[in-house]
Every structure is written in C-alpha cells, then in structure tokens.
Amino acid sequence: MPSPRAQLASAAPQSILDSYCTPFWATAAFSGAADTTPMELSALGVHIDRCNGSRGAMFGLRCVVDAVHAFVAPRFVTTLVAVGLVFGVLSLIV
C-alpha cells in the first residue's frame, strides 16, 4: 500500500504538494539579524525596575504563603487529617 505522501503526490497538483510539504514559520527579523535594540533593552530595564519596586515590604511573607499554599493545596484532605490528628492527640494530653 502506498504511503499517504505518495497518494497525495499522485493526486494533487504540484502547487498544493509544495505548500503541503514545505514547513511554514514567520519571524520578526525578515532582513536583518534577530538582535535586541538599545530601545528594547531600555524598555526592559524600566519594566524590571517597576516590577522590583512593586514588591513592597510584605513580598517575602507573600512568597512564604504562596509556597505553603502550593504544598498544601494538592494534599488538602491529607492536611485536614493530619491537623485533626494533632488536635486529637493534644486534646488527650491536655
């Protein structure tokens, strides 16, 4: 049995075959090198300065809370059982 490409080659005109077989991609650097310009680097620096300035005093605390949430969220039921066991043991001791 012939391959799908061979079947297409026998049934399709050459222009359709060329557009089917050649890869297509587009870039922003049509005639020159894809390099950053000084204006782009300046805009990136302004953006990073603004992002770093928006962190505020509570940024570290928020990072810790996000890390704890990322750890606990997938294990929510297990966390509830563990907290329940801790409170159960503490209620028996105290």
Overall residue-averaged pLDDT value: 77
Strand percent estimate: under 5%
Number of domains: 1
The counted number of beta strands is 0
Summed up, the helix count is 5
Provide the low-confidence segments as ranges: none
Q: Rg to the nearest angstrom?
A: 30 Å
Task: Report helical residue fraction.
Answer: 55-70%
Structure at a glance:
The protein is mainly α. The protein contains 5 helices and no strands. The termini are far apart.
Can you tell me about this structure?
Helices cover 68% and strands 0% of the residues. It has 94 residues and is mainly α.
Write the layout of secondary structure elements.
Blueprint: H1 4-11, H2 14-21, H3 38-53, H4 59-72, H5 76-93
What distinguishing features does this structure have?
94 residues, mainly alpha, 5 helices, 68% helix
